Each structure stands twice: as structure tokens, then as C-alpha cells.
Amino acid sequence: MRVPARLLPLTAAVAAPALLTGCFAATGGSGGAEGKRVRVAMMQPPRSGLSPLTDDAFKLSRWATAETLVTLDEDGDAEPALATEWRQHGRSWTFTIRDGVTFHDGTELTPRAVVNSLTEAATAAPKPRILDGVELTAEADGDTVVVTTATADPLVPQRLSSPQLSILAAKAYRGKTVNPVGAGTGPFELTKVNGTSSATLDRYDGYWGGRAKAPGIDVRFVPDGTARAAALRSGEADIVEAVPVSQAALLDQDLVTEVPMPRTNTLYLNTRKGPFKDPALRAAAREAVDAESIVKGVYEGRADVAKGLLGPALPWAAELRGPVRHTEAGDPDGRTVTIGTFTDRAELPEVAATLQQQLQKAGFRVKLDVREYAAIESDALAGEFDAFILSRATVLDSGDPAAYLYSDFSSDGSFNISQLADGAVDKTLRAASRTATGEARREAVMAAEAAVLRTDAAVPLLHERVIQGDAASVVDAAHDPRERELVTVDTYVK
């Protein structure tokens, strides 16, 4: 079976803040919902050429160009999308595929097309992280698709809601890349990608869910948070994602929306090598951290101090969380540690500097390594740092935190920055993954969280909030704590 490498080359440089002025000048129009395109300033440029098998998939989802078989409601329960219904029988789930759907290239959505997309994802190397620990196959059966896993998996519908399992036309998978241009099913067709600088989407009038109210979307990637906020103030952007807290207070507060989100700012400690291989030194680092001062000083109160890995966006987590027994802290005795983080989220370098001071006060010597995320991710995943600060979405993929916990803390997790390999943790993660959805699963998830916290492989700092800027002329932009939606079929600019 072919195992494709899925990276589309990135050819353009990231737009510098100084080049933002006029970046939307050629777009827009006048008069009503039909005349104006939606101008969006986004934080992170594509990391993998907008491959849907990577985190870039969430951009495709936020632009309403790529869709999945299933979506999630506010509670994280599965709802129909490209599949209209489903049922479980043992290790298999049967999904009925929606009639009357066409891809942006004019071809029809068929069970065979669905099987092709799911098979490409399941056989990719690496696989999308939503499939960590999951062996999945798909086959067409009449007007349905049968999805089978190696063991019974109660979370299959939620997994299939992940943007990383978007269904694209066959043409997207030619050669060694996945190219989503003109290959989705959503209300907007991706027509042009200018490397890591910009993207253009036009309304797709054949959309099965009704005609979009806006004629298109013009996206610019603006990593500098000050420049993104300036674009909203100057009227150059209609929607600005991830407004830095330092800029939020400078904006008209009527244009700012703040929503608690399932995203945790966490200090990951390397358990495989270096000083933090010693559990006592990990405990010393945990005790040195003053998260409340970070929330007040760096986030200006626009965040919530973490009591665990799962935050207030999942209200049941606090209700089910119990005490955690930690290892006794040891003496750092001047041990040198290197902490890595990235500049794409404006607050993280400040968090790193504050943690440097706190750990040095406790007796560590601390070096910082701060880069753009695209330049640091591979080193972080390879365990090249003693510690790494990450802003991590905890239910982004499936609406269920078990997938995040497995990906980040299981022995074979694809995003295991802590390099954790702990049999007791693995056992609780497997139990959570196998438990049916509902109260029992939530209890199993919290048992897994406790097992992770006992190791001090991760020190949760705070839970972030969505801070999004919308111009006064914007109607019905999405404010999605899971960061799956931004511009929808109902969004337009007056």
C-alpha cells in the first residue's frame, strides 16, 4: 500500500508587518452582502502547504472550504455533515453519505471518494494525530461507507469530525502531495495559495448547504500580533484572529470578543534525557512555577490559572478532578536547563522570560531558545529541549480530550514533547479511549489527567481565551472556542 509523503512546498516568505498596509487593497467592494469579500488576518502561516493531514487542516475548516463526515455541537456530540446518519456494529461503523454534494472541481461526492480520502489519511506517514493508536480502514458499501477499527472504538464519529479527516476530491491526492485547491465541498472554494503569504477563496455556488452570503474570502497570514491588531484598527481587515492580550485593551472593546477556550498553556518537561529525567527535579520545577503571576503580568488577567490540563471550557473537568500525589521536590543545585518556545503566539516569549526568572530563583540556570514555530517544532518533537512551552488545544481534533491526552502523553503518541513513556499513564489512556461516551468516559479522562500530572511531565500554567477582533461591519462571524469555524456560509460584510 502506498504511504504518501504529504508536504506541499512552501515558496513565499511570511509577510512582514511593514508590508501589511494595503495588503487587502485590491479586494472588497461596495454595497451589501453581495459586494464585499471578507478580509481575514490570520496568525500562523501554513506549515505544510495547507495539507489537510496536518494542523493546516484547521485553516481549511475555518475558511469553510473543506468539510468532514461529521460535525460537533457545543457539547462535543456528533452531528450530521457529509454523512447524514451512522450506526455501530461491533468494530465497524456504517455512515450514510449525503446525496447531491459536489466537490469544487465538479465531481460528485460518492462513497468511493470518501473511502479514498480516509484511506489516504489512515496510510499517511505520519498519520493525522487524531488517528494516534487507531488502526482504521474504510470501504464502500452501496450508498454507505463502512469504517472499521482494530478494536471497538466508541469515538469513531467524533474522530471523523476532525478537520484532518476532511473529504477532498480525488485530484487532491495526485503525486506526493495533498493539494486542497479546488478540491473541497464547502461554501467557499480555495482558488489560490500564495505560499505563506496569502490565500484566496471564492464562493462556490453549487454548495449543498445553500449559497454563501459573502462572495469570497481574502486571507493574509500575519504572524506579528501588533500588525494584526493594527489591521483591525485601520480598517484593512474585517476579521482578526488571535488578538494578543497586549493589543486587546487598545482596541474598541465593542470589536473584541473573548471566549474561554479548550486551550492550555503548558510547560512540557523532557522525561527521557537531561535534568528533568529526574522526577525530583521535575517536581522542583513545578513548585517553582507561579502561574497566577503569569496570568496577571503577561495575560493582563485575560486567561484562567490552570488547575489541571483541562480548563473551564470543559466545566465537568473541575467537578471530577481530585487531588494528585506528586513526587517530593529535589534540589536543582544550579543545573542548567534550556527552555524552548515560539514567537507565533505573542505572549509565549514573555511567558518564557517569566518562567526563566522563576526557575532561576528556585536554583536552576535557565537558557531560552525562541524561534518561529515552523523552525522549532521538529526539535521540540525530537526532545531536543529540556523543557518546552506550548499553547495546546485540548479538544481540537475530536471534541474529546482523550485524543489529546493520548497524542501528547502516551508512549507512542505523535506529539509527545515530554518524551513520556510510563506504563501506568498508558494504561489509563487506553482505558479512557475505550470507554463509551458519557459520564463514565469523563471520569476515565480525569483519571488519565491525574496519572499524567503525577509524573510532572507537564506543568499546566493557564487556560487561554479566544480573543477575536471583528469590524463593526461584520455580520455573523463565528466565535468558536475549538477554532474550527471562523467564516461561515452566513458571514458577510455590510
From TrEMBL:
Domain (Solute-binding protein family): residue spans on this chain: 79-414
UniProtKB keywords: Signal
Classification via Pfam families: SBP_bac_5
CDD domains associated with the record: PBP2_NikA_DppA_OppA_like_3
Signal peptide coordinates: 1-25
Record-linked SUPFAM superfamilies: Periplasmic binding protein-like II
Identification of the protein by name: ABC transporter substrate-binding protein
